[in-house]
Amino acid sequence: MAQSSQATEGLGSIPTLLQRNAKEYANRPAYREKQFGIWQCWTWAEAEKEIEALALGLINLGVNEGDFVAVIGRNRPHFYWSMVAAQSVGAIPVPLYQDAAAEEMAYVMEHCGARFAIVEDQEQVDKMIDIQDQLHQFEHMIYVDPRGMRKYDHHKLHTFTGIQDQGRAAYWEFIEDLKARRDKLNYDSICVMLYTSGTTGKPKGVVLSNRNIIEASRSSAEFDHLNRDEEVLAYLPMAWVGDFIFSIGQAYWCGFCVNCPESPETMQTDLREIGPTYYFAPPRVFETQLTNVMIRMEDAGRFKKWLFDVFMANARKVGPAILDGKPVGGWDRLKYALGNLFIFGPLKDTLGFGRVRVGYTAGEAIGPEIFEFYRSLGINLKQLYGQTEASVFITLQPDGEVRNDTVGVAAPGVEIKIDPSGEVFYRGPGTFEYYYKNDESTKKTKDPEGWVATGDAGFFEEGSGHLRIIDRAKDVGKMADGKMFAPKYVENKLKFYPNILEAVVFGHQRDVCTAFINIDLTAVGNWAERNNIGYASYQELAGHPKVLEMIQEHVEEVNRSLADDPMLSHCQVHRFLVLHKELDADDGEMTRTRKVRRGVIAEKFEDLLGGLYDGSKEIFTTTEVTYEDGRKGAISATLAIRDAKVVPVPGNTKVAAE
Amino acid sequence: MLDASEGFTTEDGRKIGGVVMEMKHITLRFGGVVAIQDISFDIRQGEVRAIIGPNGAGKSSMLNVISGFYNPQEGEVWYKGALRPPMKPYQVARQGIARTFQNIALFEGMSVLDNVMTGRIRQMNAGLFAQALWKGKAEREEVENREVVEKVIDFLEIQHIRKTPVGRLPYGLKKRVELARALAAEPSILLLDEPMAGMNVEEKEDMSRFILDVNDEFGTTIALIEHDMGVVMDLSDRVVVMDYGKKIGDGTPDEVRNNQAVIDAYLGVAHD
After folding, report:
1. Which residues of A touch B157 (CB under 8 A)?
2. pTM score, whole prediction
3. Residue A413: which region, alpha, beta or left (left: phi > 0; alpha: psi -120 to 50)?
């Protein structure tokens, strides 16, 4: 494409892409945010002005080249502008998870040595003030939402608009400096630093250059034929690499519009109003939506339910084939078209997927039923495999070759190899530069030739050439008898049930496998309502004998399906318990991206784990919990431990499911 | 005590102005029952003024006198330096006094947005015919009023239920919608009748924050009735304590807390 050659001709940074867009797409929308019930819009030309004013203001405030600027807030145009403004003045934006507790932020702020922070509101300002004493280099804070801020000491605290006004006022003083700084940026300069959540240990700062971001954005945009007419809804955490690539990298490369929801609670309505053409969500979001649809169908009238069931059955049969352009009989096609008219079309519209041309899910395995459901509706949902260190893309599923159990082929420009132990390695233009102030980890992860270890075990499938990921390499353990133990595989099977939100399977160095299970409050709560089961709290519902029975059925079903897999039949869950609290990132049990931290959980619930292996029928436990504002409390409960039926797997006969 | 014309500055640095409303020797009777007996107190510009007391002390009656729902048999109500003649509640509302109710009084079948819009009624002057055609003045007014309402919705963080019928909302949110409707009227005095009754701790904390934010952000004078002593002591600048229709204490939360009559009323007196 003509565009790819431009990349080397002066489009070597995000700010230069902004200049181009402001010129070429001046009157096209760049950002929208719903505010006061109306979608407010900024064109590329307007966005450029806003960013320029902020950048001038930052220079005025004393931001130097090479400084780190922390950006903390939910998806709002202001924070995207903040990141680009920071880049324009030669500083490095560091977006942080806004729901992180103060101590977590203290570590990251101290590690990168940020002198400035641009934050959303009073909540974030308070957190920063709390940790200020630990941060000797921290100087100024800028906030967007002035609510409740009047009484604060404003010596080192500034409003976002105030900084912009100062920038506009000092235009002639600093514009030459700004231009000079902007012109210095090239493919090798640092674009952004993102902290990985880290399932183990402290977060690591992944340094990504303009080359990483722009090349990854360019090649992936070409792969899916993204253009300036796309609409995306930015709602995933800004600290996550995916959001940076979708809402800045690809948006600036293609020149498409980024829409920001009014508030996290209105996301579903806003999604529907915008009707994105390009959409990304972790499996959890799709799961929740499907659960909601199914719950509402349970409550629907008999005729509607019948209609839904009939057409969905047809859609499951032929929907994916039609989407992939494979031959389908005329009668089925007609039926599908009718279904589209009566059911799928309105349903897609309600879900906000009416216009989705390319949809991606990644981060975790997605349940086959969930994946098939969306595909059968005619939504082009695909999987990709990636990580922060790769600027997202390692593999992608091409249109027409989409499957639930693989993650696709190598992304354009990315090379993949699998070492003898089964671990997946990659290298490509998106491969990160280094971990900030952590040479040791950099050396461990990235070899001198640029190959990066993913930490995941996988293999290329014969025939299709698609990559399949089995599990985290370090999670794959051995059971006491030396057989392979793949916890994630079993957990995913469990999590595919809407009633099960999280599962943690244990079995490394043990004779048998056991599991902790978290129920899904929405699904189980609705089920309880329909079955007249009263409950006052999460804990009570989780301990209800009927709920335990239901979960037991799920576990036993998983055991039966595991028994069919010769590689993993010994990983059947012998005993399980349903946890009395939801696993939570605030308690350190999960990462901010909601991946379970096995080690932490095993340690924290040591008593429960002991109970699973000593044969007791129930166990009393007290657990410390952290509330949103950082206060601590404790909850205690008596948990029942249940034995699940397992299918015997001596090498001889295969026992049918009972 | 305090000088009527001048204000004072609170510990946290808020400026409290002069007296905006003054109740002088109010007595309210229902037949032979004396609900309020010779009570006088004032409300200052920008303060959070609480009225507390045990059940049946006459708190709600007092609020109803302020809102014009009851006209006292004796005594005078001075508002913004003028004696207020007996008025109907809607006339009082026109003077910039808005209220919420102890038992939620919203239109259950209407959406949150429509309910909050009703708070703007007194700013809408277009005639029935113009409203029906929705042209010219009616349209202009609706847009202007919607803007104010949207700011309130944003302020109270109820965007996600904007289009939800009120009847489907949980109790805590209904209370917030009621506050939104009162705020939409851009009142100079906001009367809150037990804004936190029946709420759990978390909802109470949210509501307290909103009340303080309203006071801080818009400078609205707030008079509230509340049972939860902890909440009252944290929120208010000055407290009136009532018992059996009489005023038994008046002052800052600290003064009231140490007032013997108040302690007796709340904790009871030993009978010997």
Report:
1. 263
2. 0.83
3. left
